[in-house]
Specification:
The protein is α/β, with parallel strands linked by helices. The protein contains five helices and nine strands; from the N terminus they run βββαβαβββαβαβα.
Length: 207
């Protein structure tokens, strides 16, 4: 369900768009053009982009304009993030980007019905609003944020639902790095199908 059914995906509340390096997960270090849409109803208290939650704070931008701004970037990889992008109908945006020969990566909590088409889907499940069942078989990458020891069980619960080819990552919550990284290291060494994801863009001081 979209925030406003009259939009039909032709207008999106664009919070920001920028060219940088992917900082997390399987594509860490890859040059990418980021599209961040406003609007999120999950409300993680440790979210580092809380300014994205209220869609009314961000200008409704025509999809054609969003695409026009993304096309000139040297990299042809688009990362669609939020907020929660699946709050909107993403079909028009994805159709337009693909017509320009661009590859689209989605970052989502999976808590809303799926729309759009993507070359890569990073599923980052949140306890407050768990993923819908339809997203699990589509996930290319499962990235679980670790805030405390209980999150390892949450990670395994979600890992049991994704495909065998889905890559699995545990990522420390940034404000608790010192507390949780030793536990994550130990867990990955004991469960080697998991890898560690770090927010390298924060170390590099880039967007």
């Amino acid at each position: 369900m979209t925030l406003d059914p009259t939009r039909n995906g032709t207008l999106l509340p664009l919070m920001e768009d920028f060219y940088t390096l992917q900082g997390e997960g399987a594509h860490t270090g890859k040059a990418s053009y980021f599209l961040r849409v406003g609007g999120c109803d999950v409300g993680c208290y440790w979210c580092d982009v809380k300014e994205s939650w209220n869609p009314s704070l961000h200008p409704l931008t025509p999809v054609d304009e969003i695409i026009r701004r993304a096309v000139p970037a040297p990299s042809k990889t688009i990362v669609l993030t939020g907020g929660e992008p699946l709050m909107y109908n993403l079909n028009p945006l994805c159709d337009g980007l693909h017509k320009e020969g661009l590859s689209i990566h989605l970052e989502t909590s999976g808590s809303h019905p799926f729309s759009g088409s993507f070359e890569w889907i990073c599923l980052s499940p949140k306890r407050k609003s768990p993923p819908l069942d339809e997203i699990f078989p589509l996930a290319s990458e499962l990235k679980v944020i670790i805030f405390d020891e209980s999150d390892f069980a949450w990670a395994e619960e979600n890992a049991a639902k994704v495909s065998q080819t889905c890559q699995l990552f545990l990522q420390p919550e940034w404000s608790r790095m010192k507390e949780v990284v030793p536990s994550i290291i130990d867990y990955v060494m004991q469960h080697p199908r998991w890898k560690i994801s770090l927010q390298t863009h924060k170390y590099l001081h880039i967007p």
